[in-house]
Fold this sequence. Notes:
Elements: H1 34-42, H2 45-48, H3 91-106, H4 113-124, H5 130-138, E1 146-148, H6 156-166, E2 174-176, H7 184-197, E3 202-204, H8 212-224, E4 230-232, E5 237-238, H9 240-252, E6 258-260, E7 265-266, H10 270-282, E8 288-290, H11 301-306, E9 317-319, H12 329-336, E10 344-346, H13 354-366, E11 372-374, H14 386-397, E12 403-405, H15 413-422, E13 431-434, H16 442-453, E14 460-464, H17 470-489, E15 499-503
Parallel strand pairs: 1-2, 2-3, 3-4, 4-6, 5-7, 6-8, 8-9, 9-10, 10-11, 11-12, 12-13, 13-14, 14-15
Amino acid sequence: MNKPKSILKYRPENNINYKDTSITAINPPPRTSWLSRLHSKIYSQTDIAQDENDADNPLLLAKQDLKRVTFSVGNLITEHPFCSDDIPRDELYEKQKSDAAIAKQQAPQVTDLANHYDHACIQREEGCIDRFRNLLRRSRTSQLQTIDLSRQPIAPHQAGPLSDIFILKFGLECLNLSNCKLEDEAIRIILCSLLVSGTIQHLDLSQNNFKSKGYKYIAIFIKESKTIQSVDLSRCTFEKKGMQYLAQGLQYATTLTKLVMDKCNIKPPTETFQSFSEGVFNATTLQTLSLRNNHFAPNQGTWIANLIAPRLHGIKDLDLSGNQLNSMLGPLAAVLRNNTSLLHLNLSNCQISHEGLSLLSSALGDNHCLEELDLSMNPLGHDTDEGILALKNALARNTCLQSLNLSETQLDSSTTIALAEALPENASLCRLDLSKNPHIDMAGILALAISIKMNHTLTFLDINIPPIYKTTLLPCVRQTCCKEWKHNKSRIISPCHHRLHLHLP
């Protein structure tokens, strides 16, 4: 049998007896397409000349015709059309926009909260708190930012379903759990859920029965939370361990600005207060501290003074009203002299006598930061004028105090005249409250009237007028106001107007 002319039509398996005896290789005709060139490389002339034993070798592929195949690559194309959103913008704006979009996607509808709570109670096999469920149902059409459960007893087994709701991000900012008889385990469950949701800003835990572990959980929450701004722990009982935990939480807090601890039962020893004052001293974000009506012992003036010790990030608002501080004002006044952060100091109803007022006045004369001082309901003018005279000298030197409250401080006309003498020399005081001092007669009022004319900053004066003088004084005040109004009406720029509040019994 002769060998075929075309190499593609030649199949060795069709003629096993044929053997090529020629020595010269037969060159294939020239190919122009890439398919032909590929075909020639795969099946070259040397592959055609196979031995008879190679026909049965499974490793050798049988020669077949190549076929042209077309693949669709339409699905492999990714288009990037130009859009106006691709314009570079402020990075902070883009981050806020993306965070808002994520929060909107994750936040469930307020209308679903009641169903969530019912489902949580069923899963935990616990009874529902009807007051809480009704609150969720009433807020179907509005965002639930405030929840008030005060005076609602919450047992540890009831805290679980509550935490299943608080863990959701539905915009909760204020939570009132005052007088709920919360125990350590219950507050642990609730605080864990609030920490996960990360939206709470104001938390009221006043009048609850916390032990040392409860304050440990509160301290951890204050430390880890990124949103909490104020915590109320009024009327709670503090022991040494609990106060130490709270102090540690204050040191590492990053967002807490206000702490309220009014009418607390703080048990001795003195180290309890000392550790708390150290925590406040080292706090970097705390700005407002309220310690009203705590009945501190007479030997606790040192730690109170440490609360306003000069530092880089000191508190700005301190309320110590309702505490007997007359014997503890020495250390407090010494620290107040060099304080550079405190703006508002409330010492109302602290049993401060003329001796304590003298100490405060000495510090007030050198202070360059305090803007508001409340000394109301203290016997400042009892028996002697020494304290008021010291205050007079302090007002003449002070350049930052803007508001001074001397309401119900047993002032009389002589002490009022002394204060009036300091007003022309003072260039910062804007508000002076002398109300509820019935012993101030016409002499004191006239002294104030004269001194106000020489003062250019005082805009508010609150004083009581005895009934015997109202028929004489009121027409004068009315005529003065009318005359001043007519005078200022014709001027383009009006001077500072004085505002006089007259209390007529």
